[in-house]
């Protein structure tokens, strides 16, 4: 096995979703660096792998990190895994990968499961462009602010969310994106209670409100791209500025000022003001 750090994806539910190459790398590596060594020992045991395990967290320092670095410096091989899926995707590993690269060691991916990509692939939403947002802030105000910033994005949005925050999160999405926007709840992917539900945000809020089981297990939320045109491309903050300015200036002038500051097309902003007047 060539020396270096191997970033190895592990299953997100179904234990069979571990590639043959991943098994070989985990078996032959001098060390396996894992987020939670007890959790990962179960995975290794299930595949008959008895490699040495060492703990690695994003802020690892001291003995564990030294062990990983000494192994690599001596020309050995280390496999990095997380509790589930692809390391570094809302999981630890970023600092280690940089440190190892900066010391001239090879870093090699062993790709496999990732909840975001698995959810996207079965969502029925556009996949040509997507924005992986990971976890939203837990506090309501910060979450609302971030969602307002994302409201005008014209690509599919992908979020990780904790089950106990699902209802609040969907309510916040309903306010930020509107009830008509399509969204997908992808829950327990590759597990016994796998559910993929595509509906408008309004319907999804009702669906989750009516069934406590939807607030259990692991989940990915996806939101359809903002519609192109006046409503979609203008984010919530810009919309607010524009409407306020239009109270002080003629619509054309307000649109021109906001176009200059935001980089958006003047006609797009003007059309938006006209639709608001009609409403
Ligand atoms: N590194 C992982 C990956 O590649 O997907 C993600 C780790 S992150 C700490 C854990 C989050 O991923 C969960 O809170 C959930 O949002 C999502 N997730 C993981 N497994 C999942 C599954 N089987 N079904 C749905 N979402 C899952």
Low-confidence stretches: none
The neighbouring-strand order within the major sheet is: 3-2-4-1-5
Provide the succession of SSEs. Answer: EHEHEHEHEHEHEHEEHEHHHH
Estimate nothing, just give the exact number of structural domains: 3
Please report the distance between the alpha carbons of the first and last residues: 66 Å
Q: Give the CA-based shape.
A: elongated
Which superfamily, in CATH terms, is the homologous superfamily of the largest domain?
A: Tetrapyrrole methylase, N-terminal domain
Oligomeric organization of the protein chains: single chain
Q: Find the structural class using helix and strand composition.
A: alpha/beta
Task: Indicate the mean pLDDT.
Answer: 93
Give the C-alpha Rg: 23 Å
CATH structural class of the largest domain: Alpha Beta
Query: Hey, roughly how much beta strand do the residues contain?
Result: 15-25%
CATH topology of the largest domain: Cobalt-precorrin-4 Transmethylase, domain 1
Share in helix:
40-55%
Largest sheet: 5 strands, parallel
Which hetero ligands occur in this complex?
Answer: S-adenosylmethionine
Query: How many H/I helical runs?
Result: 12
The number of E-state strands comes to 10
Please identify, by name, the CATH architecture of the largest domain. 3-Layer(aba) Sandwich
